[in-house]
Design a protein that fits this description.
Elements lengths: L20 E6 L4 E4 L4 H6 L1 E2 L6 E2 L1 E3 L3 E8 L5 E5 L2 H5 L4 E5 L2 E7 L4 E8 L10 E3 L11 E3 L7 H15 L16 H10 L1
Antiparallel strand pairs: 1-2, 1-5, 1-6, 3-4, 6-9, 7-8, 7-12, 9-10, 10-11
Bound molecules: zinc ion.
């Protein structure tokens, strides 16, 4: 499982004690996460680059914070293949998740989302990616459980979604995975109810 740390102090988040991780979007790359108490420090960093020279991090317009994380348990993101591969009849590839994140959106809704982080970018700012991204044509179409990875019926369904996307048709956003992986969160919600 991926080490999930604050980009400022490099400490883990103590989700069990109610700490949460603020989601930050990197100006050039992916995402990172920060303690509430370190948020203003990260937002003050400047990305020194001839092309940018502007703040390195900003808030994500969609995702506010991560409330908890869980082991990926063999699940994978179902990613669309490149146009060339689709033309050749290969529609999706599976990318192993590094962890599950319980994400609170700015509208208060909560989703379980898969997170990936290339080992090469493990310690680099902006190295994390939400597989579902902005739910665009290049983002994940679904998640595959360990038993679904080699299921021909599921493969055909995923292929149909990618095919429809390439034709510009409306396709469902990623599957909403139930939040059952998070007994801690359920306990917290019960306490505050
Ligand atoms: Zn911190």
């Amino acid at each position: 499982m991926l080490a999930f740390r604050c980009i400022v102090c490099h400490e883990r988040f103590d989700f069990a004690s109610g700490e949460t991780a603020v989601v930050l979007s990197h100006i050039a790359y992916g995402y990172d996460f920060v303690h509430d108490r370190h948020e203003s420090i990260a937002l003050g960093w400047i990305f020194v680059d001839p092309e940018y020279d502007r703040p390195e991090f900003s808030h994500d317009p969609l995702r506010a914070r991560v409330l908890d994380i869980a082991r990926p348990a063999g699940w994978a993101a179902v990613m669309p293949e490149s146009a060339e591969r689709v033309d050749a009849g290969y529609f999706v590839r599976l990318e192993a998740l590094r962890l599950w994140a319980l994400v609170e959106y700015r509208d208060g809704s909560r989703y379980l989302e898969g997170l990936v982080r290339d080992p090469e970018w493990e310690s680099e700012p902006g190295g994390a990616e939400f597989s579902e991204g902005e739910r665009g044509p290049r983002d994940a179409v679904d998640y595959a459980s360990p038993s679904e990875r080699t299921d021909p019926v599921r493969s055909a369904q995923w292929g149909a979604i990618v095919h429809a996307r390439y034709r510009g048709e409306h396709t469902p956003s990623s599957r909403h995975v139930p939040l059952l992986h998070f007994p801690r969160d359920a306990a917290r919600a019960a306490r505050t109810a």
